[in-house]
């Protein structure tokens, strides 16, 4: 499928060209600025002034003849080349290279010329450029190339290069010459003369062509009508190009290669080596590009191949749905001299158009990439889906339009599978760009579309969308969510818009079973919401409902309040407790929150909680059907409360427990009253829990002095050794265990006074041995501490003596070393280096305020 990359436009009318010479036939031409030079078969040089004009969007040329010159050789002019820097024309005629004046066409007065030349080529990229000279390479009839520097009136010979065969055509770039010899192509390095053979050709079938394409790269005509790209290093970095037979000439106008044979001009892309256009043209004898402008000549006429604007070429490709080619062409448009900003604007629009073309062909991955790279306005995509845009949107499609799609129903034609694919594409695309720069200013359109898609498909992503920072609008989304019965999502939407009462109304119906929604997380979710709600009126509106549903969960509305919530009269603890009297489990949980979490030290809260714990235990004990584990758990909570708190009314609780068999609780209460003997007798005699008795001593002596701890253990030992106890023999073993315990602490003398005379030394050997070791250790440690104290005392005395050796003389004339003011008080500060200051001027006793010297802490105390 072809495209229109160039238009063939007449440059010089035939009548003008043959007005003077009926038999004139064009052989070659050159264009330099507005000057056009023609070399003819009968040795004439014509000079025209040519001007390109654009009239009504069409390119035309205006030409005016400036002069002509007959060289008198009666041979065809093979090559002609203008050198504007020197105001000279280089002409090759009858194998002779000569110089003419650029304007009057007269030969240079020096008569400089080169004979025996087959071909010459200008080095447009010389290694040592000079604005007042040019460098050429000529192919001689003999096996030699020569390099010359051309001045205004002189030709300077620089170098000879030997070659194995005479060259028929050459191309030069910087330090390399690409030459078509008689039977093969080769690369010659100018500096060293090294020759690298490329590939052979047969002149019977191949018209040799050497055309410089880019820096260090040439295009050669090869066998089987192939165009071969070759670098100056002798390698090919592009695939070969297929063109027509009987090739006459080749030119390059990026990104195209233009080839001419005896019937057609063909345009090929250098990007993909494919033919893009063919223009019928018979009798072509010459073609070349001059600063981006292509001129073509037949024997009697001159034309210009005018490039069609890149935008038009690209739009033509897009119209044919040739997306890849259009994008490749667009990527190379910046090389046409377009500014970066203009290029990027044009290129993004082309990417957007290409994206919609891929979209219509269900090439969704390609469309996604092009939409993102082209930064398409996402509304251009959303508006293709019916009822997906917000109702209040005033969006209008891009003008000129990026596509001609009314909506996706035209593309899907009621095909459910295809419709699902288009919907999935929209969803995945919106998800991908939602938090990118493509969503800036368009968050509402994206979120509304996603919500509608999620609601319709019952997607699990609906809830996370509404929990996040969503821009969904109530007016558009409520009806959609109600239609698809997404009740929890609807409540979240109301919550997002601060309509908490409506949200709670929906959630309460979901909890009550009036509505159903599988995405609803349950009653606990509503409790957590109410617990964090700062609208206390709304909290109290729903707290009764919550407590009636589940007291234990409902009370969390009051106990899980935000830490930084300001105080409120309605949430004052006393008011809450009064309100909760109808809910016994809730009031216990709330009091636990006050006592254990908030750690409020109010007697009434602690007593109230202890009474409720006790009442619960008593009620469980009366019920014979209650499991033992439940009773044990309730009593454990009561004992924990009685043990850790010291704020409840002990006598009140004790009065209730003494009438029961709750001995462990009575022991704790007696301990709170400092009646340790009664407590320990309960533990030993009634409960026979000797470990609990020992633990009682440890717990009740925590934070007390050692003497108090010894007193408790002596009381316990006395209980064990009480001779009045009828079963005293059973307590010998626990008594010995207590004496030998590592945690018990005793006064050895008092223990020996308590022990019965009947106990043998062997029975007490372990206790006595440990007591002796402890006594000796204490004695030795006391002696060590005494000697250390004596040494410290001596050290301090030494420091004092050293400080008193030098007198501190204070006179009325002596001023503070810091503030330089006299002393008005009898106190002052003296540093070890002799600096004396006011007390208030001595900021740091370890650093001298004058010198900044740091003193060792052992000797730095100011006197």
Automatic annotation (TrEMBL):
Coiled coil: none annotated. Keywords: Cytoplasm, Protein transport, Transport. GO terms for cellular component: cytoplasm; membrane. One of its GO terms (biological process) is endosomal vesicle fusion. CHCR repeats lie at residues 561-725. InterPro entries: Clathrin_H-chain/VPS_repeat, CNH_dom, Vam6/VPS39/TRAP1, VPS39/TGF_beta_rcpt-assoc_1, VPS39/TGFA1_Znf. This is CNH domain-containing protein. It comes from Lottia gigantea (Giant owl limpet).
């Amino acid at each position: 499928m072809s495209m229109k990359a160039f238009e063939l436009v007449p440059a010089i009318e035939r009548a003008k060209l043959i007005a003077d010479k009926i038999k004139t036939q064009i052989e070659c031409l050159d264009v330099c600025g507005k000057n056009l030079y023609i070399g003819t078969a009968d040795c004439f040089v014509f000079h025209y002034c040519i001007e390109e004009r654009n009239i009504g969007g069409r390119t035309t040329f205006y030409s005016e003849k400036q002069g002509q010159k007959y060289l008198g050789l009666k041979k065809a002019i093979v090559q002609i080349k203008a050198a504007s820097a020197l105001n000279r024309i280089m002409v090759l005629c009858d194998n002779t290279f000569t110089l003419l004046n650029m304007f009057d066409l007269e030969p240079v007065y020096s008569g400089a010329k080169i004979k025996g030349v087959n071909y010459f080529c200008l080095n447009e990229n010389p290694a040592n450029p000079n604005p007042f000279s040019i460098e050429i390479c000529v192919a001689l009839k003999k096996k030699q190339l020569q390099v010359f520097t051309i001045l205004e009136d002189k030709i300077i010979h620089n170098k000879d290069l030997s070659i194995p065969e005479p060259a028929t055509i050459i191309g030069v770039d910087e330090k390399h010459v690409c030459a078509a010899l008689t039977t093969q192509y080769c690369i010659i390095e100018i500096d060293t003369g090294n020759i690298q053979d490329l590939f052979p050709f047969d002149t019977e079938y191949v018209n040799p062509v050497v055309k410089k394409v880019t820096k260090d790269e040439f295009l050669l005509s090869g066998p089987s009508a192939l165009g071969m790209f070759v670098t100056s290093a002798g390698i090919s970095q592009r695939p070969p190009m297929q063109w027509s037979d009987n090739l006459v000439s080749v030119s390059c106008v990026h990104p195209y290669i233009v080839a001419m044979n005896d019937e057609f001009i063909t345009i090929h892309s250098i990007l993909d080596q494919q033919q893009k256009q063919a223009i019928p043209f018979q009798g072509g004898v010459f073609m070349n590009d001059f600063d981006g402008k292509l001129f073509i000549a037949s024997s009697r006429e001159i034309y210009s191949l005018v490039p069609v604007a890149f935008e038009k070429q690209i739009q033509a490709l897009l119209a044919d749905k040739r997306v890849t080619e259009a994008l490749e062409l667009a990527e190379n448009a910046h090389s046409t001299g377009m500014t970066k900003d203009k290029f990027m604007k044009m290129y993004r629009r082309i990417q957007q158009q290409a994206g919609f073309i891929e979209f219509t062909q269900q090439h969704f991955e390609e469309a996604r990439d092009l939409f993102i790279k082209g930064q398409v306005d996402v509304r251009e995509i959303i508006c293709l889906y019916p009822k997906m845009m917000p109702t209040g949107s005033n969006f209008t499609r891009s003008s000129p339009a990026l596509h001609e799609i009314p909506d996706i129903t035209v593309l899907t034609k009621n095909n459910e599978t295809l419709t699902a694919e288009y919907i999935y594409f929209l969803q995945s695309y919106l998800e991908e760009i939602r938090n990118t720069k493509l969503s800036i200013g368009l968050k509402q359109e994206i979120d509304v579309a996603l919500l509608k898609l999620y609601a319709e498909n019952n997607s699990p992503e609906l809830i996370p969308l509404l929990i996040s920072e969503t821009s969904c609008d109530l007016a558009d989304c409520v009806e959609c969510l109600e239609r698809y019965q997404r009740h929890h999502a609807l409540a979240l939407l109301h919550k997002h818009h601060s309509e908490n009462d409506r949200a709670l109304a929906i959630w309460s119906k979901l909890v009550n079973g009036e509505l159903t929604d599988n995405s609803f997380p349950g009653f606990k979710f509503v409790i957590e919401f109410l617990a964090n709600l700062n609208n206390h009126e709304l909290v109290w509106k729903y707290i009764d409902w919550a407590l009636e549903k589940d007291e234990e969960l409902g009370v969390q509305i009051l106990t899980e309040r935000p830490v930084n919530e300001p105080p409120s009269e309605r949430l004052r603890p006393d008011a809450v407790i009064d309100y909760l009297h109808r809910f016994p489990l809730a009031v216990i949980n709330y009091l636990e929150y006050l006592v254990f979490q908030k750690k409020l030290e109010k007697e009434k809260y602690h007593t109230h909680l202890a009474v409720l714990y006790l009442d619960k235990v008593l009620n469980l004990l009366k019920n014979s059907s209650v499991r033992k584990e439940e009773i044990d758990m309730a009593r454990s909570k009561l004992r924990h409360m009685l043990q850790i708190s010291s704020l409840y009314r002990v006598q009140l609780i004790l009065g209730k427990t003494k009438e029961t068999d709750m001995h462990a609780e009575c022991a704790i209460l007696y301990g709170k009253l400092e009646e340790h003997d009664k407590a320990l007798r309960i533990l030993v005699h009634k409960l026979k829990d000797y470990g609990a008795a020992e633990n009682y001593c440890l717990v009740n002596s925590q934070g007390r002095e050692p003497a108090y701890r010894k007193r408790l253990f002596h009381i316990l030992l006395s209980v064990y050794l009480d001779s009045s106890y009828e079963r005293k023999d059973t307590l010998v073993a626990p008594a010995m265990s207590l004496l030998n315990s590592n945690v018990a602490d005793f006064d050895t003398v008092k223990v020996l006074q308590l022990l019965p005379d009947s106990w043998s030394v062997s029975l007490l050997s372990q206790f006595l041995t440990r007591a002796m070791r402890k006594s000796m250790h204490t004695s030795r440690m006391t002696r060590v501490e005494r000697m250390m104290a004596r040494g410290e005392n001596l050290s301090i005395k030494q420091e004092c003596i050293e400080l008193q050796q030098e007198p501190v003389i204070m006179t009325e004339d002596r001023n503070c070393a810091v503030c330089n003011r006299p002393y008005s008080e009898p106190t002052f500060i003296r540093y070890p280096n002799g600096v004396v200051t006011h007390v208030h001027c001595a900021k740091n006793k370890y650093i001298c305020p004058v010198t900044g010297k740091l003193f060792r802490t052992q000797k730095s105390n100011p006197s």
